[in-house]
Amino acid sequence: MTRILLTGAGGGLGKVLRQKLAGSYELLRLSDLVELDPAQAGEEVVQCDLADAEAVMALAEGCDAIVHLGGMSVENSFDTILNANICGTYNIYEAARKQGVGRVLFASSNHAIGFHKRETRLDASAALRPDSMYGVSKGFGELLARYYFDKYGIETACVRIGSSFEKPRNRRMMATWLSFDDLTRLVKRVVDADRVGFAVVYGASDNEESWWDNSETAYLGWQPQDSSAQFANDPVIIEEVTDPTDPAVVYQGGAFAAAGHFEDD
Ligand code: NAI
Ligand code: 15L
């Protein structure tokens, strides 16, 4: 597992991983719709649209694993989600199949299960309950991953990322926060593990408030080491006032669950 394709390399997490994975593998092929900084040693840079099947087919050539972060990362019009996330992820799996790429890390999201209540503890077998069309597209990606593993043996870790930012931005993120270092360790475990199979992993740090149970994927050997507790006294966390009956507080998906249909806005 030495030649890695990283999609979404121009985004928030893509930029972090570009920096943190530098030098760890023989090749990091970086791709995004937006222009990227020029390639450094051990890197290749390819600008392309994930909806362009031919371009994505070429993108995967010669790679051992794909870290698929690219796509629309929040709620948007169905058209945008369809092209970037649904067609884009299908193109990634078809490219993996035809180019012989054996392993994918799919950046799924907590919004695939965002309509579960916060007092419900979820494990890898929890039902998909998307809270948005964005969440629906992540559920579709997980189903694609399941299908390509069962039919073609392409391994995937579907990582239902919570909130991966420098620090939590609100009270909800005290439970959902995933530090950049824990994310990087998880990506490396998925790339380096002897066996991944089909795995659903919740991407959260070792936070005091926790809604998710990763015991079914303990075989991957990933143990988050950071905790949001260090931010408990941050003014953003202390000052935020929340109504416990607000759907944005009741459901795991927060504001995504509470929002109306994007196309109506
Ligand atoms: P981001 O929005 O910063 O980055 C996504 C990147 O994908 C952007 O650089 C964008 O240009 C690229 N992209 C969008 N449409 C594309 C297309 N049609 N073709 C090629 N590239 C395209 O998002 P972020 O925060 O870096 O997240 C990365 C991935 O992780 C996303 O798939 C997101 O859904 C997922 N995720 C992130 C979370 C977070 O807390 N940061 C939480 C849950 C999931
Ligand atoms: C996501 O899926 C988004 O990509 C990210 O921007 C955050 O909104 C995150 O979920 C979250 O739930 O905090």
Description:
The chain has 265 residues and is of the alpha/beta class. It has a single domain, classed as NAD(P)-binding Rossmann-like Domain (Rossmann fold, 3-Layer(aba) Sandwich), CATH 3.40.50. Helix content is 34%, strand content 15%. It is built from 9 helices and 7 strands; from the N terminus they run E-H-E-E-H-E-H-E-H-E-H-H-E-H-H-H. Helix 1 crosses helix 6 and helix 3 packs parallel to helix 4 (133-152). The longest helix is centred in the middle third of the chain and has 22 residues, at 78-99. It is globular. Bound molecules: 1,4-dihydronicotinamide adenine dinucleotide (NAI) and D-galactaro-1,5-lactone.
Question: Would you spell out the secondary-structure blueprint of this structure?
Answer:
Elements: E1 3-7, H1 12-21, E2 27-32, E3 43-47, H2 53-59, E4 65-68, H3 78-99, E5 103-109, H4 133-152, E6 155-161, H5 173-176, H6 180-192, E7 198-203, H7 235-239, H8 247-250, H9 255-258
Parallel strand pairs: 1-2, 1-4, 2-3, 4-5, 5-6, 6-7
Bound molecules: 1,4-dihydronicotinamide adenine dinucleotide and D-galactaro-1,5-lactone.
